[in-house]
Amino acid sequence: AQKVTQAQTEISVVEKEDVTLDCVYETRDTTYYLFWYKQPPSGELVFLIRRNSFDEQNEISGRYSWNFQKSTSSFNFTITASQVVDSAVYFCALPLIKAAGNKLTFGGGTRVLVKP
Amino acid sequence: DSGVTQTPKHLITATGQRVTLRCSPRSGDLSVYWYQQSLDQGLQFLIQYYNGEERAKGNILERFSAQQFPDLHSELNLSSLELGDSALYFCASSGLVGTGELFFGEGSRLTVL
Fold it and tell me: Which of B33, B106, B107 sits opposite A102 (nearest CB)?
């Protein structure tokens, strides 16, 4: 069965510090997608990134970067020079089963608190 | 703004009652998904509809049901409500199947007293 583990339940940092969120997954599929979503205090879930298991290159988008390592089944997310607006709960996700389309299973989430 | 609209945003009701949550997907999206987010269970997939037909079921209770109408909006019906049903219910829609990208609404927060 697919499983996503986010061991860190809450991380507190001071503005401008970097913060890395861990995500470890389990899947029997040989090809798959991985996702990160952000849930700000307002409550909605915002899509951040999709990564195909074929592509292990790190990805950077502004202050966000992702490190995908298939060998360790990890897909970690780093926020560089954090800002107060980054305060949110971040979820890592994996499709429930291969060819499940867009039905995702989510990790427990990591709450990030950025203090000014 | 994801383009997915959910109503109501907040709902308070009593145990034993029945409520209906409504979702309008993004324009052009045929798939609608319902998720429940609670403190103890996290984010859980409930059910998916595609173009009016049920496609997949997750951890949805028998007291809950859903449907998708010809105009593609969807409704999630929750009946015989219990305290434990208090949660944030999300609707999401997607365009391309298989990409995994879901567009979520702002959720409907249900409180059962």
Answer: B33
* Neighbouring C-beta atoms of residue A114, cutoff 10 Å: 20
Q: Are B58 and A42 an interchain contact pair (Cβ–Cβ within 8 Å)?
A: no
**B71 phi-psi bin (left φ>0, alpha ψ -120 to 50, beta other):** alpha
Name the residue in chain A with its Cα closest to that of B9. A43
For B66, residues 6+ apart whose C-beta sits below 8 A from its C-beta are B34, B46, B47, B49, B54, B60, B74, B75, B76, B77
Computed over every residue of chain A, the mean pLDDT equals: 89
Instruction: List pLDDT tens digits, range A72-88.
Output: 999 999 999 999 999 99
- Any chain B CB within 8 A of the CB of A106? yes
Q: Does residue B36 belong to the interface with chain A, where contact is any CB pair within 8 Å?
A: no
* Unique residue bearing structure tokens 């209906």: B20
Q: Which residue has the tokens 């997949």?
A: B56
Nearest-neighbour CA in chain A from B67: distance (Å): 17
Tell me: pLDDT of A104 over 80: yes
* Residue-by-residue DSSP string for B27-58: TT--EEEEEEEETTTEEEEEEEEETTEEEEE-
pLDDT value, residue B112? 97
Gyration radius of chain B over CA positions: 13
Beta-strand relationship, B103-104 and A24-26: unpaired
